Amino acid sequence: MKVSDFYYDLPEELIAQKPLEDRAASRLMVLDKKTGQTAHCVFRDILKYLKKGDCLVLNDTKVIPARLYGRKENQQSRIEFVLIKKHTQTIWEVIVRPGKKVRPGSCIVFGEGKLKAYVREILENGNRIVEFEYDGIFEEVLDEVGLIPLPPYITEKLDDPDRYQTVYAREKGSSAAPTAGLHFTDELLEEIREMGVDIAYVTLHVGLGTFRPVKVANVEDHYMHTEYYEIKEENAKIINDARESGGRIFCVGTTSCRVLESVSDENGFVKADTGETDIFIYPGYKFKIVDALITNFHLPESTLLMLVSSLAGRENILNAYKEAVNKRYRFFSFGDAMLII
After folding, report:
1. In DSSP terms, which residues pair with 62 in a beta bridge?
2. Are residues 169 and 132 in the same domain?
3. Which end of the chain is more exposed for a tag (fewer CB within 10 A), N or C?
4. pTM: predicted TM-score of the whole model, two decimal places
5. What are phi and psi for residue 281, nearest 5 degrees?
6. Which contacts of 215-219 are long-range, i.e. CB under 8 A and separated by 24 or more positions?
7. How many domains does the chain have?
């Protein structure tokens, strides 16, 4: 299977640069995964497609201020870090720009010395393993010297950083937001609960590896980075009870989907677990538990586009994306949404 099979043409002006004032006012394309037929509404109409006994699964990860700007000790040239993966409280994997200037043994200083990073190792992918040095609590220092790392296709400044967080974000650790969840408001979630729909939470700390371009010609040759996940006992029970009673499992975002498919058995039941997942879902994959997926519109030739194609069929997805372009939907993180059902 070729990566080029997942290409589509997207006019640059359709890449959303700002979130809408009302989270739930985004447009919603509903795609029937069996027939390929589409319908169009606004996101708060998601209520029409849920019913009592269903289970909505949300990723409660929270984006940390993972972008850091500093300089090499005793030099003035600017160095950018993006925190990718936590190994211990002080040791992290990071993306570095410009990488050529940062070799093992280098010391990078952030926030006038409030935070220092010593480069310990260069990985095969060019990322660095660094050890941080600071006084106090790391998260508090990070809040002081770091920035929320918006994706590179968003070129406008975000006035309110909280708009790149879901309203239910609580577990700190992501380098990027699980953007399908950005459309939900507290009021909409309360309406969903009142309908008798169960809500369960999983955690997957999103790393930028999820969004990196696929650089191989064949899909099967792509290597997925690992990401930390957790699903607690009470949430596994909510999901399994819904499944056992005939309810449908609606995943909010590809991250929630990847967690559930990582922890499900062949009968479609999940277990409480924590660990690292590198699950790569592309056409040919047989879903074990996910019945429906709420998601945004994804980049051409991306692993996320491959995932939604595995659920709805590649032709159905590409036809739906072509229709979305023609109807001037807004794409990517701050864009409109799709329900695959």
Report:
1. 172
2. no
3. N
4. 0.93
5. -105, 120
6. 216/3, 217/2, 217/3, 217/4, 218/1, 218/2, 218/3, 219/1, 219/2, 219/3, 219/5, 219/6, 219/282, 219/306
7. 2
Instruction: Centre a 10 Å sphere on the Cβ of residue 131 and count the other Cβ atoms it contains.
Output: 15
| Coil, helix or strand at residue 220 | helix
151 part of a folded domain: no
Task: Tell me the torsion sign for CA atoms 46, 149, 82, 301.
Answer: positive
**pLDDT digit string (tens) for 134-162?**
999 999 999 999 999 998 899 998 999 99
| Residue 89, domain CATH | 2.40.10.240
Is the same domain home to 279 and 303?
yes
Cβ-contact 270, 263 below 8 angstroms: yes
CB 234 within 8 A of CB 255: no
Lookup: tokens for 171: 């577990």
Q: Report which of 311, 321, 317, 316 is spatially closest to residue 341, judged by C-alpha positions.
A: 311
Q: What is the largest CA-CA distance in the chain?
A: 64
Encoded amino acid at 213, one letter = P
Secondary structure in 3-state letters for 317-341? HHHHHHHHHHCCCCECCCCCEEEEC
d(C-alpha 42, C-alpha 25), whole Å? 6
Only one residue has tokens 């957790």, namely 230
The phi, psi pair for 179, rounded to 5°, reads -70, -20
Alpha-carbon gap, residue 61 to 82, rounded angstroms: 17
Q: How is the chain split among helix, strand and coil, in percent rounded to 5?
A: 30, 30, 40
Q: Which two tokens stand for residue 103?
A: 């070799």
Distance CA 101, CA 129 (A): 15
Q: Give the sign of the dihedral formed by CA 242, CA 244, CA 250, CA 256.
A: positive
DSSP assigned state of 164: G
**Please, what is the average pLDDT of the chain?**
95
Residue type, 12: E
Taking the C-alpha atoms of residue 79 and residue 164, their distance in angstroms, rounded to an integer, is: 24
pLDDT digits 0-9 by tens, 27-54: 999 999 999 999 999 999 999 999 999 9
